[in-house]
Amino acid sequence: MILLTGATGKTGGETAKALAARGVKARALVRNLEKAAALKAAGIELVHGDVGDAASVSKALAGIDRLFLLLPNGEQQLAHEKQVVDLAREAGVRHIVKMSSMESMVNATAPIPQMHWASEQYIRASGMAWTMLRPNFFMQNFLASAKSIKENKTFSLPMGDGRTAMADTRDIGAVAAEALAGKGHEGKSYDITGPEVLTFHQVAERFSAVLGTKISYVPADPAAYLAILKRVLPEWHANAVSALFGEIAAGEVLPHLSDTVRRLLGREPVSLEQFIRDHIAAFR
Question: How far is CA 174 from the centre of its chain?
Answer without folding.
Answer: 12
